[in-house]
Amino acid sequence: MASDSKNQLIQRPNSENNQISKKNPISLFLKHSECSHVSCYCEENVYKLCQDVSSRHSGEINKCFVVFVSNPSRTVPLWRQRSGKDEDRLVIWDYHVIFLYHPEPEKCLVYDLDSELPFPTYVHKYVTETFRTDHILKPDYFRYFRVIPANEFLKEFASDRRHMKRPDGTWIKPPPNYPAIQTATNTHNLEDYIQMDSSKGPGQVLSLTQFVQRFYKPAT
User: Fold this and answer.
1) Active-site residue identified among 40, 42, 50, 64
2) Is 197 in the active site?
3) Burial 194-218 (b: 16+ CB within 10 A, else e)
4) Model pTM?
5) Among 98, 120, 127, 177, which is least packed, fewest CB within 10 Å?
6) 30/93 Cα distance (integer angstroms)
7) Any long-range contacts for 20-24 (C-beta under 8 Å, 24+ apart)?
8) 164 in Cβ contact with 173 (< 8 Å)
9) Distance between CA atoms of 42 and 21, rounded to whole angstroms?
10) 17 pLDDT above the threshold of 70
11) Distances (CA, A) of 59 to 7, 46, 53, 103, 111
């Protein structure tokens, strides 16, 4: 996950209507500060969250999802990120990864270790503040979402961290201090998750609208 700045990316809205949930978040994890987090290794941070749920709340793992956010141009604008520099905390990533807990049809929480929003945040508030809308963006910056069941991600994901190395072999950002994640048959398949061709790769690829429709069900 690498950052890139863009000028005049969007038309900034004059106002936004953020609906904030009144419900109390579910305590699925320990405090944000006690979760495994290494800067620019969001996919591995989320992998560790999946491991945590699998070991401490095994009955809930089938209600959890890993979501890769990217697009063909690898320019994904996200607001309210801790690494953002302006007042809106806007960053441009080549991709980002978040963790979703969807225990009930009308309840879905987002865990984003790189966000300045509460940990967790209900999905509607997270989408409103982090993704806003594609209508204010140029098409190259539209966000797409590859949604993978967390238990499948734990079984299949692998990364030898090659994407974080320069041509001379030095690290762009220091890696986590635990061994690289691999499976019995694969040492690196990160690209399969980042690319947003719906006919390839694990899980399901959704547009922003489809993502909201799947995970946000207003109470009636």
Assistant:
1) 42
2) no
3) bbbeeeebbbebbebeebbebbebe
4) 0.88
5) 177
6) 27
7) 20/125, 21/122, 21/124, 21/125, 23/107, 23/122
8) yes
9) 26
10) no
11) 46, 18, 9, 11, 18
Local structure of 141: helix, strand or coil? helix
- Using the predicted structure, report yes or no on whether residue 182 has a pLDDT greater than 80: yes
CB 99 within 8 A of CB 32: no
CB 60 within 8 A of CB 53: yes
Alpha-helix runs per DSSP H in the chain: 42-56, 123-126, 150-156, 190-194, 208-215
Q: What is the mean pLDDT of residues 9-37?
A: 60
* Residue of 50, 52, 102, 112 with catalytic role: 112
Locate 33 and state its tokens. Answer: 């500060």
Task: For 95-133, write each residue's pLDDT tens digit.
Answer: 999 999 999 999 999 999 999 999 999 999 999 999 999
Q: Is 64 a catalytic residue?
A: no
Query: Is 42 known to be catalytic?
Result: yes
Catalytic residue among 50, 64, 96, 102, which?
96
How confident is the model over 24-33, as a mean pLDDT? 73
Residue pair 172/1 in contact by the 8 Å Cβ criterion: no
Q: Environment class of residue 32 by beta-carbon count within 10 Å: exposed (0-12), middle (13-18) or buried (19+)?
A: middle
